[in-house]
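Summary: Need help interpreting a holo structure output

Steps to reproduce:
1. Submit the protein chain below together with the SMILES for flavin-adenine dinucleotide.
2. Request a joint structure prediction with the ligand placed.
3. Inspect the structure token block that comes back.

Expected: a single structure record containing both the chain and the bound molecule.
Actual: see attached output.

Input attached:
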Amino acid sequence: MGVYKRLRCCGCDFKKIMIKRLDNVKLNIFEKEDKLAEIARKKLGKDIKYIKILRKSLDARDKDKVCWVYSLAVSSERIEESAKELEKLPSAPKVAVIGGGPAGLFCAVRLIQHGFAPVIIERGESVENRRKTCEDFFCNKKLNVNSNVQFGEGGAGTFSDGKLNTQTHDGLNKDVLELFCRFGAPQEILYSNKPHIGSDKLFTVLQNIRKYVIDNGGEYLFNTLFCGLTQKNGKIQSVIIKNLKTQTESELKFDCVVAALGHSARDTFKMLNKSGLAMQPREFAIGVRIEHSADTIGFAQYGKNYKMLPAADYKLVSHAHPRTVFTFCMCPGGVVIPAASEEGGVVTNGMSLYARNGANSNAAVMVQMHKQDFGEGLFDGMEFQRMIERKAFEAGGGNYKAPVQLFGDFLRGRNSAEFGEVKPTFASGTKLAPLDGVLPSVVTQALKAAIPDMGKRLRGFDSAYAILTGVETRFSSPVRILRGGTGESCSLQGFYPCGEGSGYSGGITSSAADGLKIAEKIYEKYKTH
Ligand SMILES: Cc1cc2nc3c(=O)[nH]c(=O)nc-3n(C[C@H](O)[C@H](O)[C@H](O)COP(=O)(O)OP(=O)(O)OC[C@H]3O[C@@H](n4cnc5c(N)ncnc54)[C@H](O)[C@@H]3O)c2cc1C
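--- attached output ---
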């Protein structure tokens, strides 16, 4: 963003030059002000030769990171104008990005490229702390409802296979992959037909994104819950946030708020509904995770030389039952992970490391659900998901163990007594229990018809020893926050629903692409500033 002004420069006549304002430029207390020019050039290009400090303040909110914060006027010509005149340059609009998942982070990165300094508000922890908190949950069953496999820096896909399937022909997908590489993802994602990063490499990418955002004037507020908003004449005014460490609430004013909340922000969806946001219920799918040995899948896909090749994947659809059944989020050489974000619920998902060298391979087997299954109300789908997660919790013994059953026993309606050749990988433990009591009968019937049908196309898929782990409920968001052509909420100006939680994407790549799209919409709105 910038403006043209008639200014006297370098002692010569008044001439028309381009000057820009840069807000929220930070220097730590050990850095010299000479560095400001370097920062301005990094952000706005080599042509920047002159800077003028408009404002300087000390930010001592975090005693370990006390820093100076500057507002600058920058130009390619010497600026002789009085500071008062320059202060009239409009400051960049203040943008909050709620949610540090792929949608929120890629939105923030593109906003920075356009000269904004977004504040990322994230209920969960930084990826380093989040990893420890998740391990604590897996081993000691201590669930942190704000920082877990669904919530925290990187969003829901941080503990994932990091598949970057596009499934859409959005031109922004290429930008997403290039940005991933810029922040440390392996270059092969640019040419592989099935690109994947792996959970281990994703951590580094997230840390690099954070460094970029902070170095360029953006800010992260971790452990901070977006819990309310204020509006005036149909326009967003501010967000109410709660510091989850101190439990204190405060109000921050913003011109734009990007809501990239993911599909599991149930409390926030309710708050937004109460605030009058236009929302709609959405249909989704539910199911189980199926686990085989990676050797079974490798042999079925590649034949006897499968060990020479990367761990094999698959993608299956069955119409053997009136309900479509499909596999989803396949993790070759991966593990099934506990993905609950609410107390008293069990949720499964899958994850693998870059090497994909685990003994098992898993995928979700999902059954499409319709409103006739869960109701027409805005939150009926969400409550239906919750009810199934609670049943799974009880069936697993009430301590975040997952209910599991061998496929052969599930098909024949009998209890499993012991595991066969495949051992479950679910990190917080499993309990052999019938899944018929956990899932609605339309789901179990569809699975019983579809898995043998899939086995006709992938040998061993319907092995009696395959393990089914319940339940896979967080497939997609059960609600949509309606937005119009400007990217803004249909009912609240300046509020931008974004990514999977708002019902506009599914998966890492399309959510990141939606983040870029919303950043472009915001830039379009303010570029004449
Ligand atoms: C275990 C697992 C494995 C997966 N594997 C893959 C895969 O391999 N490939 C793939 O494409 N997809 C995968 N997915 C799906 C993928 O992660 C999501 O589609 C994607 O993360 C959605 O991005 P998003 O930014 O829209 O939302 P999210 O990633 O869900 O991010 C939303 C963020 O908002 C934050 N938030 C929510 N409410 C608030 C609030 N009130 N205040 C502050 N912060 C808030 C959350 O903490 C969260 O960090 C996986 C998901 C999981 C759970």
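--- end attachment ---

Reviewer comment: The chain has 13 helices and 23 strands. The chain has three domains: 3-87, 95-280+481-526, 283-472.
Status: needs-info
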